[in-house]
Amino acid sequence: MTQVRIAIAGASGRMGRMLIEAVLKDGEAQLAAAFDRPGTPFVGRDAGEMAGVASGVAIGDDPRAAIAAADCLIDFTRPEGTLIHLALARELGKAMVIGTTGFDAAGKAAIAEAARDIPVVFAPNMAVGVNAMFKLLEQAARILNEGYDVEVIEAHHRFKVDAPSGTALRMGEVIARELGRDLEACAIYGREGVTGERKAETIGFSTIRGGDVVGDHTVLFAGIGERIEITHKSGSRMPYALGSLRAARFLAGRRSGLFDMQDVLGLR
Ligand SMILES: NC(=O)C1=CN([C@@H]2O[C@H](COP(=O)(O)OP(=O)(O)OC[C@H]3O[C@@H](n4cnc5c(N)ncnc54)[C@H](OP(=O)(O)O)[C@@H]3O)[C@@H](O)[C@H]2O)C=CC1
Ligand SMILES: O=C(O)C1=N[C@H](C(=O)O)C[C@H](O)C1
Question: CATH 3.30.360.10 region(s) of the chain?
Fold first, then answer.
């Protein structure tokens, strides 16, 4: 069995650490490189240190060298960093798994463009449970397509920098598509003051930030006299890391193309 050689960007970040731990425990993957931004105190230290395992791989600060050493780059950083790493992966002909959220339209277009030359999995949530919930939402929206108000509520830790979460936005997209609506036109991001009555076609988003909440998402379908709530709660970041490794294996042997976790999990 050939092992997929993995490089990890943002090695000292919350997801970077979790990914390193997952790769080191996975018999089908090999940690080829891990890197951080130059000047961070983690550069030069063993990548497995925070997982309590000696990996023999020192955290570097040269993205090009790290990506060149691997078959696949897994990137959970920030949009500006991811786009730099994406250009390098494209130049070097390497696969890439992108978990970073918060891209603008130009960033998403750059990912689609790069995927003409290299294989890319780009998904706002790598957890199997959340991807199952996307399918449940499709079905719920299909059934509750009239008379039910749709609200997406998400909660995350105090360190998260983008809102609403990428997952909440994808939930909104899935529901809007099923209802024949354009999310850009119907999304309401928070309410304040005299807002007037709720418009039936809107999809509302509410964001909570606090403490160490890993990630909770609820979609509320509220009718007159009844309501349905579909909720996913993350208790650990490991499902995101394990999903990313599944994605890296899915990309092995592919030459190009833009995929998401629905493709990886065969849910399309
Ligand atoms: N798709 C999914 O399943 C999931 C997605 N995410 C997303 O992943 C991303 C990272 O989350 P998380 O690990 O919690 O964040 P952290 O802030 O803990 O880690 C981010 C890492 O990226 C580095 N980084 C930041 N900016 C840049 C840059 N411009 N260039 C290169 N490296 C950079 C940071 O380095 P430094 O310390 O120097 O800033 C840090 O090492 C977020 O967008 C989050 O929403 C998170 C969980 C699951
Ligand atoms: O920043 C996080 O932590 C998470 N971000 C992703 C998102 O924005 O949807 C996925 C998960 O919810 C955790």
Answer: 128-234
